[in-house]
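does this look right to u?? zinc ion version
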Amino acid sequence: MEDGNIGDEASSDEPWDYLFDVKYTSYAGYVTSSLKLAELLEKYEYSTSTRFRCLKSGKHFGKKFEKSGACDPKVRIWDTQNNADPYIRYDGTPFIIMGKKVLECHQGFDRDSKTNQKKQTKSPASDHTFKRKRRLVQSTKKKDCPARIKIRHVVKILNYKVSDKDKPSRKFVPQVKKDLHDNTAELVFQHRFYVSLPLEEVHRNHMKGAASSIMQPMDSRISNYIKKVVTEHGVTSTLKMKLLIEVFLKQSIFPDSPLPPKHNKRFWPSLKDIYNHMAVQFLKLRDSSFDQ
Ligand SMILES: [Zn+2]
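got this back:
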């Protein structure tokens, strides 16, 4: 609920909905692998013309569960943090919490504070990302966007389940603990990544939607493609390059899904952008041919 990430049931239709293995709303649910998590986040970013980057990630987040790990796994039956976001809904199956990851909106970031941030990163307190950011807000004119993607990784142990008729019970806990210790091979694990996505209105201090996507830099796959086409095939026409990029988008980046809207400059660079990228490659080619 906090920060505008919603956790209650609400029906809506968003392009990334189908990527949830279990969907509570378009902005909350879970997926059962880190690959699916990456797909979901990518689709969410493309569809909303947003970009996020890691702010904080737990040590065991996204890792395999190992009983010999440094931490003594605590077997849980329900989420004891009622206001956790995302909240792990009760389903009668015991689980272990692996960790949390928080991503922050990339677009609310003030580029001028980069040097300042570098200085701060080198300081001994650099582990405390949150603290560092807070200090930055005070010490510079940084315009932070509060939009966050929050993810919690848990491992469900599917061998056990309280029947739906039973009251929530911790009766399995001692047995699960014992099995985790002596009998791991028999256990059936399911990794779950619970995701809480921000609504568009949570973004602050930057342009949103179509307007912000006009400002987005070219996707690196496209700039690499331009480089390749110029150096290997000697294409010199920007119009021809634009058509080739469209084919590349369809065949290589979005083979199984619709193309992003044309105002999204990350995928639909302008002729001027294309020209500039090509020009850099021509200069490099010319320089290298002088060397020979
Ligand atoms: Zn934002």
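The pocket of zinc ion is lined by residues 105, 107-108, 145, 147, 203, 206 (CB under 6 Å). idk if thats expected tbh
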